[in-house]
Recover the amino acids of this structure.
């Protein structure tokens, strides 16, 4: 397995004792590095796109459609991420994964990780 990043976004834009805020951008056809989430978080899709995800072993997790303007609430627990928001409620992903923008427009989201 290749190196796993702890950066869950493209650029960290703010951090204090309670949260970390990330800007995340992915051009059409671009894939993130393999990365690991270790905190619960929410994200707001500024510009949505379909994301094709793989786990750390290269297994295809399927395409996750992220509509523009959607908000996702993600619980991180027991080495698993679970969507708690209305949209995609109950969908589960491994904490370590990557994502490829399989759409034809740039993807952009803001991620807020909770330190508690």
């Amino acid at each position: 397995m290749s190196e796993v990043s702890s950066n869950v976004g493209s650029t960290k834009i703010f951090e204090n004792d309670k949260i970390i805020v990330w800007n995340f951008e992915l051009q059409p056809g671009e894939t993130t590095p393999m990365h690991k989430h270790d905190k619960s978080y929410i994200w707001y899709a500024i510009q949505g796109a379909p994301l094709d995800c793989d786990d750390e072993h290269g297994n295809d997790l399927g395409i996750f459609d992220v509509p523009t303007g959607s908000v996702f609430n993600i619980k991180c627990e027991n080495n698993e991420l679970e969507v708690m928001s209305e949209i995609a409620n109950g969908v589960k992903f491994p904490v370590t994964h990557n994502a490829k923008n399989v759409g034809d427009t740039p993807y952009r989201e803001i991620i807020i990780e909770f330190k508690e």
In short: The chain has a mean pLDDT of 93. Residues 55 and 97 are 4 Å apart (CA to CA).
